[in-house]
Structures are given as structure tokens and as C-alpha cells.
Amino acid sequence: MNDMLILMRDTALLREPAMEAFRDRKDAMKRGVAILLACFLIAGSLAGLISLVNHVRPFGPEQADRIRQEVLQGFEQFQFYGAMDPDAQAFLDQFTQNFESGLRMGVEIASLPTVLPKGIAGFFTALGGWLTTAFGRLTAFLAYGIWVLLFAKLMGGSGGVDRFFGLTALFAVPNLLSFFAPIPCVGPMIAFVGWVWGVVVYIKAVQVSQRFTAGRAAAAALLPAAIVIFVVAILSLLSMIGFIAAVSQWIGS
Amino acid sequence: MQPVTRSFGLLWDALFLQRDAYAHMRDDDNPFVEGLFILVLLGVLLAVAAMIGTTLEWASTPNLDAVRDVVLKNLQTMEWYQFLQRSPGSESSFLQVWNSIWNAFAGLAPSPLRSLTGIITRPLGLIVWWLVFGLLAHGLARVFGGKGTLNQTLGATALAASPQLITLLTVLPFVAVAGLGTWTLLCGYMALRTVHDLSWPRAVFAALLPPLIIGLVVALIVSAVLVVGFTIAMASFGGGM
Q1: Contact (CB, 8 A) for A194 and A178
Q2: Closest to B35 measured CA to CA, from B188, B171, B206, B183
Q3: Residue contact B172–A98, C-beta within 8 A
Q4: Where would I find the H helices in chain B?
Q5: Does one domain contain both B174 and B209?
Q6: Regions of chain A short of the pLDDT cut 70
Q7: SS3 of A103, please?
Q8: Are residues B196 and B116 in the same domain?
Q9: What share of chain B has pLDDT > 70, as a percent?
Q10: For A126, which residue in chain B has the nearest alpha carbon?
Q11: Distance separating alpha carbons of residues A210 and A212, to the nearest angstrom
């Protein structure tokens, strides 16, 4: 346990000898995945706790009132910027009416009986969400990593698959900062710092696992993301052009 | 008990891409039987876990019919529904569509009885996938210059099912595990590389092509069924007109 904590500290500080020693371990992937899961479970624990409280507490008229007030406050702020035209006002009135019905529906469904007590059901829902998020991040890490590994191999990388995944899994260590994400205002900023720090650790891990220079490691680690962004941008542009062409044809006819 | 713990030890090591686990299967005196045993064991265990999870999920959620009644009752108070009621025949058409949607939903709702069938379908599904993947991967590995036998390939590729161990988490309700395809692919790659002693690009192609071929065949079959179904529906619609 102490070894793991020392490794996590050294990784966060980008200490190369510690990362090299970890790379040469036979059980690098086992340990790496264990650290990654532990980090993501801890990082999601505050959000999980908030979700637990929300799920265990029965959804009654008081909570519905709170949500109603929040939403209506939002509408009032919207109206503050100027008078709305009659069509928009009619739409807003219709929306508010449907929203009220939706809330009533929510309260009634929440009060329907279940075999297990509501508190236990709520606990299971929150627990399920917490675990699903952590394991979802693990599978996303593998799905992205396979492309990084492919680019690294094409660039002449020489590390084994298990060592690569073991070492790159350590990018989760700085992501422990996303524990603070649910805190209003500063939380998302702290989580963003952890994410950027995690990207730096990931690049360093690619460098050490593939015995690369820093430049090649950065290229291998970032190219898959750059390609995805480029493809999405091109597809968005094409669909936008198609949409504009269709609309202008429709207006013309 | 020893074969069971040994099988899980192999699956556990294979999950983390440890070459020793795949080499053990390759060098086994009967890799096919060992692989079959591992998959049946894994399939039954996954089905039991899913059964427990589904039962807990069913016990934690309200009855679907009661939910349907609440939603419908509230929809009927909305302005658009009252407008619908004024138009003759519209409400009955709406209720017809409404009921068919909820009946389709009922098939997706957690059901302890339905989850019992997993005891047979889960191991069977794993075995069918293993045989199809193993045979295709072996053929491709041999084309790419592999040296292993079919028996060895099937033994080692049985361990490609090891990422399914993660789905044991579904013993807890509301846990969803998705995206294990990449991990399965990595395990398949490791199995083929160990058995056939292939270079990494050849092992990648031998592991990647079978799922692509299977996906293509399934897509073709589904498209053909859809086209035939659509043609029959159009013909009967035309006849009815």
C-alpha cells in the first residue's frame, strides 16, 4: 500500500526513475488499473455522496416546489432582458404548464410503492451510478489508449501492450482533483487543472513506456484526439452546409 | 474446486494481458476442452450475477403498469390532450400507439423470471462467439504465417472472454458496464500473438478482422430481413388499398 502511494506521488511529480521501475514490473497493468479505478472511485465519491442523499431523500412536494422555483426564477431573469413577443410568451406559458404536469408526474411516480424500502432502492441507484461512472472511465481509457498505442507503434515505439496500459493508467492520479468538481465555482476549475495535469502525466507515461522522445510521445498521445476533432469539425461543417442548402431551397420554393 | 480456482486465476491474469496465461492455454494438453470449461463456468457465473442484480433492480423500481397509469393520467390533463380528444378517432389512435410503446418497454423492464433464461443463453452466447471468432482468427493467423494449431488457438482465444469478468459487477442493481469490446480485442490480440508468434501488425489484423467480418455479415442479414419485411409490408398495404 505504501509502495502504491509513493508511486502515485512520484508519478504526479513526473519522476522518470519511478515510472521506469513501474514499467519493468510484470504486474504493471494489474497495478495500473487498480490505481486508476481507485482514483476514479475516490474522485467520484463526493458527487456519489450528493447523489446518495438526493436518492435516499423521498422526492416529495417540497422538492418539487424547490425545482419549480428555480426554473421559474430562470424564466423571470430571461424576461428581465426585455418584453417578449406574444408568440414567445404563449410558448413560455405552454412550456410552464407542461413543466408543472411533469413535476406532478414525478412526485406521483416517486410515491409509487416498491418491494424494497425507498431508502435501499435509492442507495442502490446512487451506488450503481458511482460504479458505472468509474468503470465507464476505465473502458474509455482503454478505447483511447488502443489508438495511442497504434500511433506509438507506427512511430517506432518498443513497449509491451500491458506495460503501456499499466503506465498510462497513472494519468488518473492527478484526476483525483476532480473530487472537488461538485463544489460550485472553484470545483470545475480545480477539476480542469487535474485533467490538464493528467494529460501531462499521460504523455510522460507514453514516453517512458515506449522509450520515446517527449515530442514523439506528445504526438502519439494527442494525434488520436486531434484526428477525432478534425473529423467531427469536417462532418459538422458538411452537415451545416447541407442544412443551409436545404433551408435556402425550401425558402426559394 | 481446484480446476475452478485455476480457471479464474487464468481469466484474471488474461484480463491484465499477462502472456503467461495465454502461453499456459497454448501448452495445455487439451486447450479446446479447457477453453470450453472456462467459458461455461464464466457464463453460468455471469448469469447468476445478472439474476441477482435484476431481481434487486426489479424490487427497487415501481410496477411499470402503475407508472404508465400515472403518466397517462397526467397527460390527459394537458391542453394538447384535450385538443386531441376533440378530433374524432385521434384519441383511440394515440392510445393504440401509446400502448404499443409501453408494451415494448415492458420487455426492457427488469424481470427476475426472464433473467433465469440467462443460465442457458449466457454460456451459449459466449461459446458461439468464441467458436466463430476463434475459427476466423485461426484462419487469418495461418494466412499471415502463424504456426499454432486450431486446438491451441481455440484454447487461448477462450481467454479473450476475460473482460466479461467486469460484468460480474451487475450483481449490484443499476450498474451498467459497456465498452468492453476494446479490452476483448486486446485479449484476442494477445492470444493470437502468443499462439502464432506473429509480428504485432499481423496479430492486429488477425484479431481485428474477425469482428469486422462478423459485423458485416450481421449487418447484411439485418438489412436483408428489413428489406424483405418492408417489401411484404408495402405489398400488403398496396393490396389493402
Answers
A1: yes
A2: B188
A3: no
A4: 2-15, 19-26, 31-60, 64-75, 79-86, 90-106, 112-115, 118-143, 150-157, 181-196, 200-240
A5: yes
A6: 77-84, 253
A7: helix
A8: yes
A9: 98
A10: B174
A11: 5
CB A165 within 8 A of CB A142: yes
- Chain A residues close to B179, C-beta within 8 Å: 136, 139-140, 142-143
- Cell 493508467, located at residue: A169
Domain holding B70, by residue range, is 64-106
Q: Is the pLDDT at B21 greater than 90, yes or no?
A: yes
The Cβ of residue B38 has, within 10 Å, a number of other Cβ atoms equal to 26
The reported pLDDT for the residue numbered B111 is 87
User: Based on the domain organization, do B78 and B194 belong to the same domain?
Assistant: no
Question: Total structural domains in chain B?
Answer: 2
Side-chain-side CA neighbours of B20 within 13 Å: the count stands at: 7
B7 and B124 co-located in one domain: yes
Residue at B50: amino acid letter: A
Is residue B123 predicted with pLDDT exceeding 80? Answer: yes
User: Among partner residues B59, B62, B71, which is closest to A105 by beta-carbon distance?
Assistant: B71
Q: Please tell me whether residues B10 and B25 are part of one structural domain.
A: yes
Residue B238 confidence (pLDDT) above 70: no
For the whole model, what pTM was predicted?
A: 0.84
**A209 neighbors A76 (Cβ within 8 angstroms):** no
Is the ipTM higher than 0.85? The answer is no
Clarify whether residues B16 and B71 are in a common domain. no
Residues B161 and B216 both lie in one domain? yes
| Per-residue confidence (pLDDT) for residue A225, from 0 to 100 | 94
Contact residues, chain A, for B186 at CB < 8 Å: 142, 146, 161
pLDDT value at position B187? 96
Whole-number mean pLDDT of chain B? 91
B28 & B144 share domain? yes
- The CA-CA-CA angle for residues A167, A31, A152, to 5°, reads 20
